[in-house]
Amino acid sequence: MSSGQQNHSETGAGDSDNLALKDIYKLLKKEIEAPSLQTIELDTFQKIAAALGNLKGQGYEGIEAKIRDRMVDLLANSARLLIETRQHKIRAGSEPLDYSKLTDEEKYILDGKRESERRAGEVVAATIKGRPKVLESISARVRSRQIVVRFLKPMEQFVGVDMGKYGPFQPEDVATLPFENARSMVEGGLAVEVHVTV
């Protein structure tokens, strides 16, 4: 195999499961130039992630490693721009949204935004309609909510907002903590949230 062929396949250009930089550039250019949301393959973002994973996994040294790192940056930035451009069109679209043009990842983002808007509407409605019991119920749900976190740094034992004792914890320990405590630790860089699907 010639080195040209080897490099061609390593960048994902010859692999149907990956997208090369030129493919992402074409998708991005088309999306930016078109006023409406463009149809893309449903597994586009998965293919981009696979291409980036393969590229990052290449064990180059010296100048080849610098070229690989630059390609990773270009591919990642192009992918970010593609996602952001499409999200802007989804949010700002004046026409009804065509769900057939959305990837599953975009539907996931949209679902989260709609849930956030629904919650905001629930709080506003309860407040302006004079329904303190609804707001008390929301507060009780928040106070009783627990979050799973993975610790990044050591943490001494502490008393949670629920008056329960937690810890001590070492890096990589996983624990279920009250929402308020977990959020402050995540935002302080002591831990990261672990998303658990049931």
Fold blueprint:
Elements: H1 3-10, H2 21-33, H3 44-56, H4 62-92, H5 104-128, H6 132-144, E1 146-151, E2 158-159, E3 165-166, E4 174-178, H7 179-187, E5 191-193
Antiparallel strand pairs: 1-4, 1-5, 2-3
Helix pairs in contact: 2-4, 3-4
Give the key terms.
198 residues, mainly alpha, Ribosomal Protein L9, domain 1, 3-stranded antiparallel beta sheet, two-stranded antiparallel sheet, 7 helices, 5 strands, 9% strand, disordered N terminus
Average of pLDDT: 87
Strand order of the largest sheet: 4-1-5
Count up the helices.
Answer: 7
Structural class: mainly alpha
Q: What is the terminal-to-terminal distance?
A: 48 Å
3D architecture notes:
With 198 residues, the protein is mostly helical. The protein folds into 3 domains: 3-98; 103-144; 145-198, 3-Layer(aba) Sandwich (Ribosomal Protein L9, domain 1), CATH 3.40.5.50. It has helices at residues 3-10, 21-33, 44-56, 62-92, 104-128, 132-144, 179-187, and strands at 146-151, 158-159, 165-166, 174-178, 191-193. The strands form 2 sheets. The chain has a 3-stranded antiparallel beta sheet. Strands 2-3 form a two-stranded antiparallel sheet. A hairpin with a 5-residue loop joins strand 2 (158-159) and strand 3 (165-166). Helix 2 packs parallel to helix 4 and helix 3 (44-56) packs antiparallel against helix 4.
